[in-house]
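[Backbone geometry]
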Amino acid sequence: MQECNDTAIKRDIHLSVISHHHAELVQLLLVDLARLACAQRLQVTLISNIPEAIELKLDDLSFPVKHIINKAPIGFGENHNQAFNHLPLPDERNFFLVINPDVRIYEDVISSLVQKLSIDNKIGVIAPRVINNEGDVEDSARPLPTFTSLLKKIFGHRSEWNHQGKNHCQPDWIAGMFMLFRIDVYEQLGGFDKKFFLYYEDVDLCSRLWLQGYSVQVDISAVIVHNAQRASHRKLKFLLWHLSSMALFLTSRVYRKVKLLHKHR
């Protein structure tokens, strides 16, 4: 087991987890977190976007969990913004981690990524490399979407960031299943833009980080496991949310400005 990089016992890493009928996955994630060497540094805000049918076992964990149950469902970004403002131990936090319930963590990537954020204040957000259960790399680090790339995606050609032979990469954006921030950076950006109910809120936030002079980074040596639900491929309402958010981002001022920035970096 890896040693925690900070010998002082302080709950300085705040995790935000949103559940939408994901109680079983949440329980697995919490157990993973409890096994990490840095478990004593963690505190968690768990938001059930709708009432859960399965009772979560939170009392036996080695870190505090604040459980919020929404009266009515709200969007992905707004939920994480809510979690950011409602944490178990407000005075101890230095880092904020947005993490999906369907992520599995088998090594202490959180500690190593926190250390990188602590060393380099130009990093706005950092994430590990993401693989699925079969060991295949997920497309969690991507180039900025364009109308051309989206057309290619319709026909099965997905854009991925080339990080072969590198220890880290700086993609245009990273997917929202795992995003680690310093709290001052998250506050400076105002968190996620709640106009995006679902999808593209991560693209927008990463774009605003770039425009503020920060970088978006993936540590290739750190690995987590994620199996995407791909709900927009199966249900019409998710597809409509996806298309709506896509249109909102591609017609935004942020998109126009960051597209020019990436063209010259």
